[in-house]
Amino acid sequence: AFYQASGAYGFRDQLQDTLAFVLHDPSLARRQILNAAGRQFREGDVQHWWLPQTGAGVRTMIADDVVWLAYAINHYCEVVGDVSLLDEQLPFLAGAALQPGQHDAFYKPDVTEETASVYEHAALALDLAIDRTGPHNLPLILGGDWNDGMNRVGIDGRGESVWLGWFLAGTLQSFVRYAEARGDKVRAERWTTHIATLKAALESDGWDGDYYRRGYFDDGTPLGSKTQAECQIDSIAQSWSVLSGQGQPDRATVAMNAVMDRLVDPAAAIIRLFTPPFDETAQDPGYIRAYPPGVRENGGQYTHAATWVVMAFAELGRGDDAWTCFSLLNPVNHALDRQASETYRVEPYVVAADVYGSADRTGRGGWTWYTGSAGWLYRSAVEGILGIRRAGDRIQVRPALP
Prior knowledge:
By secondary structure, this protein is of the alpha+beta class.
């Protein structure tokens, strides 16, 4: 997006952006998958972002990067029907590993002469994700999962993420078949075993009674729980219980009902990321607390996550709810008259990364021209609501709306 002027590639960011084009031009996604896979260290972790001219970038402890490669590969293969991507050979990066207590390092790594298949690159990353398992058998959140602002939830290496549990379980499930097809029995068995362990943890320590928790702090305090005064419910732990295909159907339905009841706000015309926002909590979730309550990730609408709410309702076949939520996100609907325009204050013809949700800021757009949200909003409309999905040379349509 224009607000990020470094010129760097983001590992998970551009993978997600290009997936929006798989139905239109699969070659874009294929090229970016190869581009990203080539930025992986032999240990399985990746550069969170890198400068294309030099290859210099940042090695981090952000936990979800290592799952996005396999997720993107599977989506590409499912939609296009082209599994030859898995056989492409790519080198690894080599460089200083992060030391205990070190959360990131910027440097220019070497490129090894050793190469491996794209499948092996993705498999190494998934193996590392499994290794990073916490005391409740949930994935460690480390330097942050999808929500970078929660960068101190697990800073000591014991905090965990329920959302990442769903994302990992679903991605592992999709990748088992590739392992089996390639005769990689050891991984197929390990991944299958871990899926069962992870699902049991998600349905026990991940369940809060009416919806799923967001995770756990280093000291074991629940995050995204009704037992806490702030951040009692977070949308992405609910939406991905559906999108992963791994949640118990009855519980996933109840969890999405809670999203509709507590996070979808028609009066403010937003879908909140979580509620209530962080303000006075004794726990330190990270830099997210530096935002005022209701601004950006801190309890406002973070559109990237809100699109997953649309897709989850569509996946459940709840077309009316999917359409209601999509209409709240559609920027055109925030500027239908002068009063609405003066409230929204930003361009109504592009997607905003965030919309504020507190006091006199309610309904005001934030960071615009945001490709991360735009790509997912496009997918929520085309793949979710319209149900258009391509398999090889066949167009499959499974609409959420009748």
